[in-house]
Design a protein that fits this description.
Elements: H1 5-17, E1 19-24, E2 36-39, H2 46-53, E3 60-64, H3 71-79, E4 82-85, H4 92-103, E5 108-110, H5 128-136, E6 140-146, H6 148-151, E7 162-168, H7 175-178, H8 184-200, H9 209-212
Parallel strand pairs: 1-7, 2-5, 2-6, 3-4, 3-5
Antiparallel strand pairs: 6-7
């Protein structure tokens, strides 16, 4: 896997010049050891900005295999520590890469929703997420990224400027579910808990001046 410093340098300039990004809860990110951060998915901007926000740790990301078909974009994603995953099937290669990174002490980020939201609202989590984490048994840090849907939603050709906030929460308690048997119901409950904790980090909608009166 390639290193992220050059990409982070470019991302930093975009963050400073194009977006106004605020980061909350960065102290919840473990300073050492493997972990998984689970994030809502609103835009192609999400992995770059979440990695930028977790400055003290270099994140690796799953990305849909179709994005790697173009040689240049595939190369760029590899430089961003992304690795391909086939959607809709049990991708053994991606699963092995996921666990290999964690065993080597690397942190991995992924999006339990599986794809970008078409509406800006949080979608149900994919059930395979629970199985991945059940077998990983590492700290799981939830994160919510707000504002990227407005900047670069699904279907838009180019990103626009805007305000973005990224909030990291404390590790999700999953020990009680790890004690359950490796079965579909256990995996479903883990996935539901992930989405619950991600949703709890969503900023409250701003009140209008009229409402404040």
């Amino acid at each position: 896997m390639a290193s992220f410093p050059k990409i982070r340098f470019l991302t930093t300039w975009f963050v400073l010049l194009y977006w106004r990004v605020k980061v909350h809860g960065a102290g919840n990110i473990p300073s050492t050891g493997p972990f998984v951060t689970v994030i809502n998915h609103a835009s192609y901007l999400d992995p770059f900005l979440v990695d930028w926000a977790s400055k003290k740790r270099e994140l690796y990301f799953m990305a849909k295999a179709e994005l790697f078909r173009n040689w240049f974009f595939g190369w760029f994603l590899t430089q961003c520590n992304a690795f391909p995953v086939k959607r809709g099937v049990l991708d053994e290669s991606a699963i092995q890469t996921f666990h290999r990174l964690l065993r080597s002490g690397k942190p991995v980020g992924f999006f339990p929703e599986g794809t970008r939201t078409p509406t800006g609202e949080l979608q149900p989590g994919k059930r395979g997420s629970g199985m991945l984490l059940y077998n990983a048994r590492v700290p799981v840090i939830p994160a919510y990224i707000d504002g990227t849907f407005e900047c670069y939603p699904k279907g838009k050709a180019f990103p626009g400027p805007g305000r973005v906030s990224i909030t990291f929460g404390p590790a999700i308690p999953l020990e009680d579910l790890y004690e359950k048997g490796p079965e579909k119901n256990t995996y479903n409950r883990i996935t539901d808990r992930l989405m619950e904790h991600i949703g709890q980090l969503r900023p409250a909608p701003a009140r209008s001046p009229l409402a404040l009166g």
